[in-house]
Design brief:
217 residues, 8 helices
């Protein structure tokens, strides 16, 4: 390698070296940074639309109607697939601490949701055998509260782990909304989850996008 080529590859001074570091950091963030706004928007829309469907087609005995419930699950599935499609390319090639954090984070989601599903399956089987409006109401509220408890706690831990304040606020908001819904009960539960829960996520997505744009400016 000639002296001339070496001169062009090595930064001429501190300012040029800092510019090279900033450029490399920007390229890394563009490839690997996981921004909260797209995920919050996806889940906010899923909650807003999905819970509204449950509220509009609520059965008189507080049971979960089949078609709206499948639509609700479909909304959550779309949001989940979008989450995987967004996160997996961002984490590809990441090694070390970031990779371990991502693995633990994925385990928290998968194991937490798996355990909540098993708990709800056992509880709902018992409540279905009773088959009264009161039992149906409790089954619906508990089926909503347990997964929201997992989501809210994981969001709060995510905020502490990655220093993302908007996720901490959102996690606390989800827990607060779910607490209110569980206390208030039917017939307003699904409307509160739709407007306050889904709407809260959409507001958080806008706040996150605006704050991210200001940092990038």
């Amino acid at each position: 390698m000639s002296a001339v080529s070496q001169h062009h590859e090595v930064p001429a001074g501190p300012d040029e070296a800092l510019a090279v570091v900033d450029a490399q950091r920007g390229a890394y963030l563009k490839r690997h940074e996981i921004r909260p706004a797209p995920l919050l928007a996806a889940w906010g829309m899923a909650w807003l639309v999905g819970y509204a469907a449950l509220a509009l087609y609520r059965e008189p005995d507080y049971g979960l109607p089949s078609a709206p419930y499948r639509f609700f699950c479909g909304c959550l599935l779309v949001a989940l697939l979008f989450t995987f499609a967004y996160i997996i390319p961002k984490t590809r090639g990441v090694r070390g601490r970031s990779s371990r954090e991502g693995t633990y984070y994925g385990c928290a989601w998968s194991l937490g949701m798996a355990l909540s599903t098993i708990i709800l399956s056992r509880a709902n089987t018992f409540l279905a055998a009773i088959d009264t409006p009161g039992a149906n109401e409790v089954a619906s509220l508990v089926s909503n509260a347990v997964p929201c408890l997992v989501v809210g706690v994981i969001f709060l831990m995510s905020a502490a782990l990655w220093d993302v304040p908007v996720m901490g606020v959102l996690g606390g908001w989800i827990l607060l909304v779910t607490l209110v819904v569980t206390v208030v009960g039917m017939p307003w539960a699904w409307w509160v989850m739709s407007v306050a829960g889904g709407g809260g996520m959409l507001v958080a997505a806008v706040v996150s996008a605006v704050s991210g744009a200001k940092r990038g400016a």
